Amino acid sequence: MGLAFDPTGYERQLEEKRQQLTALLQPFAAPAPEVFTSPLEHFRLRAEFRLWYEQGQPHYAMFEPGNNRQPILIEQLPIASERINALMMPLLEACKADPVLGRKLFQVEFLTTLSGEALVTLCYHRPIDEQWDIAAQQLADQLNILLIGRSRGRRRVLQRDHVLEELTVNGRTWRYQQAEGGFTQPNGQVNQHMLGWALDAAGDNADDLLELYCGNGNFTLPLSTRFRRVLATELSKSSVRSALENIALNQVDNVTLVRLSSEEVTQALTGVRAFRRLQGVDLSGYEFGTVFVDPPRAGLDPATLELVKGYRRILYVSCNPLTLAANLDELHKTHRIVRCALFDQFPYTHHMESGVLLERR
């Protein structure tokens, strides 16, 4: 991603995506998609670079898909945030000048935010120790960044292992802990559009929301303002930790978070199986009128499809329109699409993010 950067072709590529999504949703009588554009450059808040050594000197390198032998050496990446671009060369020069920082360094990972924070992870093919800590802290102070070192099986965190992001949705600012190595939406501006669309599509409700695949609470926090209560579920332990921190950080008091997979949620809600992790949670007390799902690329499994069909409204955000369309083959039997959207999270690629709101027929 980023090697085919060409702003002059952006509108054409976006129109192709719109047409593709429209064609995929046409069998389900979907309305025309609302389209949310991306900034043309500096939109990607995270980036990962391998280092390629020529005559003993390191260079940032990227590779075309399927070709890891022919590097493309770069000094700047136009799709990456301005902060990443400003840090790239000073960081590399510092590592070249100090063997404690630069010896057997093979990868650099950047995580930045709209709020201005930057966390950099340096990955090594050698053990790193307290001597590295001293040199790394000097570099972190010099560049005003958070810094983490990784070597096989070990991680050295100098200050903290996360950044604090701020996202503004419908005039309200939400704060998010975004952990190193955890999933976050890479395009912050488009993420704000996604959150705003989901909030608008949800409307105001007197009943409750069931959310599957809640991640770090990206959608959970804004959506909590539109429902009486939210039961949010997520399987990843690190995402659950971040989500709990974000719920507390924003003083949200109507969300209950449980660590369950979507399959386990189905088993719990259908009474097939009891879970200790649900101890103290009165499932019978919820009145779910809406279910929100943001599944992985594989989409919803058959059991989860059957579960969500039982709710009056389904708000579905998808990172893979092909699996979304496959799921809609089943959901369309009981629900109709009343709104849909295209979010251009990944300009200059064929990837697209989309959303649909379905209501029971």
Give an account of the 3D structure:
- The protein has 361 residues and is α/β, with parallel strands linked by helices.
- The chain has 2 domains: 7-40 and 187-360, Rossmann fold (3-Layer(aba) Sandwich); 46-163, OB fold (Dihydrolipoamide Acetyltransferase, E2P) (Beta Barrel), CATH 2.40.50.
- The protein has 10 helices and 17 strands.
- Strand 9 and strand 10 (172-179) form a beta hairpin.
- The longest helix has 16 residues, at 10-25.
- The two termini are 41 Å apart.
- This is tRNA/tmRNA (uracil-C(5))-methyltransferase.
Beta-strand percent range = 25-35%
The CATH homologous superfamily of the largest domain is termed Vaccinia Virus protein VP39
Q: How many strand units?
A: 17
Along the chain, the helix and strand elements come as HEEEEHHEEHEEEEHEHEHEHEHEHEE
As for the CATH topology of the largest domain, it is: Rossmann fold
InterPro entries: MeTrfase_TrmA_AS, MeTrfase_TrmA_CS, SAM-dependent_MTases_sf, TrmA_MeTrfase, U5_MeTrfase_fam
GO cellular component, one term: cytosol
Keywords: Methyltransferase, S-adenosyl-L-methionine, Transferase, tRNA processing
Catalytic activity: uridine(341) in tmRNA + S-adenosyl-L-methionine = 5-methyluridine(341) in tmRNA + S-adenosyl-L-homocysteine + H(+); uridine(54) in tRNA + S-adenosyl-L-methionine = 5-methyluridine(54) in tRNA + S-adenosyl-L-homocysteine + H(+)
